[in-house]
Amino acid sequence: MEAKTAKMENKVVLCGVLALFVAVLIVASVSVSAYDQKILVDLTHAERISIDGITSPNLDTSSNSRVLNWTDWADYIRGEGYAVDVLTEGPISTEKLAGYNVLIIAEPDVTTSGPAYFTTEENDAIKSFVENGGGLLLMGTQLVGGSSPSEFTADYDTVYHYPEILNALLANLSVDMRFAEGMIEGDPYDVMVEDDILDQVGGPKGNIWIYTGDKTHPIWNNVTDGKFAYWHGCSINVTNSSINIVATGDDDTYTSVKNMDYSPVVKPPGSYPVAIATTEYGSGKIVAYGDAGCWQGATPFGGSVINNPDYHEQEIALNLIEYLAKPTPITAGNITVLAKTTADSNGNYTFSNLTAGNYAITAVLYSPVGWTMGSVNASIGKGELLTDTDIWLSTAEEEAVNEILNATVDPGGLTGTSS
Fold it and tell me: In sequence order, which ranges of 269-333 are alpha helices (DSSP H)?
């Protein structure tokens, strides 16, 4: 693939149509591993996250230096074949997001100037990233903890600003889910709570088991005992039926303000407060997860949270990344097809005369198991040559395949070849 100079509009797709006679060869040559997948963790908005000893350079630590150490999580995900990078120099832009499959924004807080909101330009870049197939994971929790038991206890008196920052981003994206946000008598809310000891993980009753929700969702795939630990997590408000409610508290879970009495109640038992919610967004996906503490390493009360198999955090974490890293299947109804080509007998294809911008490449193939289809996102810069763009293929409905095969190509002068 080659690029020239101008910037391309969003939501454009190149269709590489794989011919029937190369079906077996193509299946053998398509990569199905995670090793080309890249994750970017934002640290430019005062996030209270540390990875590999790196923290947000603009986090105001003058009155609160607490951070969640995610290095164990990063090591685990890297061991599963994903690259994990951190972004420490803002602003977020299309150029900085290029080449990444997943963007994580977790526990953003305050700089010396106040809450670290995203700028209009950053909102636009994130919007474009997700629309073009990127995955966006938003996380926040009311109790960050600390490096000692006393610091942990004192954190009940701390106010964190992630709800207003993440909610402003979600509002700008026009996504109808929000992190619970508010104050009652000086205490922020909310924290998900269980009085039933069988539903408590251990320690304070804000440490609970989550085992209810849409168990058919891939985020639940192969989770041991069908449950995972939730550590003083908040709830997600969902106001649109199109949002997928993936995980919730059970029938007696409630939420409260953050204090050591867990009182007053905010959402009563029977409200099934939401822990994880997802939505498709263009060709990408957005997940809101109300617990950023689930991926931390050692706490003052024991070993690594993410590495403890009893909590099942690794299973949920890997499922989340796999879900977000795979673009939503593309249909021809809401995209502009710029070019089509047929791969050669070795599965090679080329698109040339491309302007700089973000693209999606969709491949369809008839194989011995029937129709298969897959998509990959590609960001290409001015004068850049992009090679080895492999596409994952999975079983597809014939109707979806026909949409791609029969889509009208925009007469823009682009070409596709099998070289």
Answer: 313-325
Q: Tally DSSP H helices, then E strands, for the chain.
A: 8, 31
Instruction: Give the CB-side neighbour count of residue 67, counting CA atoms within 13 A.
Output: 21
- Parallel/antiparallel/unpaired status of strands 394-395 and 370-380: antiparallel
Residue 376's closest CA among 387, 360, 364? Answer: 360
DSSP 113: T
Per residue in 210-269, pLDDT tens? 999 999 999 999 999 999 999 999 999 999 999 999 999 999 999 999 999 999 999 999
Q: Which tokens sit at 144? A: 């960050």
CA 204-147-187 angle, to 5 degrees, is 50
- pLDDT band for 31, please (50, 70, 90 cuts): very low
The three-point CA angle 50-56-58 to 5° equals 155
Count other Cβ atoms within 10 Å, centred on residue 6. 10
Q: Amino acid letter at 139?
A: M
CA-based nearest residue to 316, from 209, 190, 205: 209
Distance CA 147, CA 291 (A): 18
**Hey, what's the torsion of the CAs at 344, 326, 388, 91, to 10 degrees?**
140
pLDDT digits (tens, 9 = 90+) for 348-390: 778 777 776 667 788 888 777 788 877 777 767 667 777 777 7
Helix/strand/coil for 258: coil
Residue 207 token pair: 């440490």
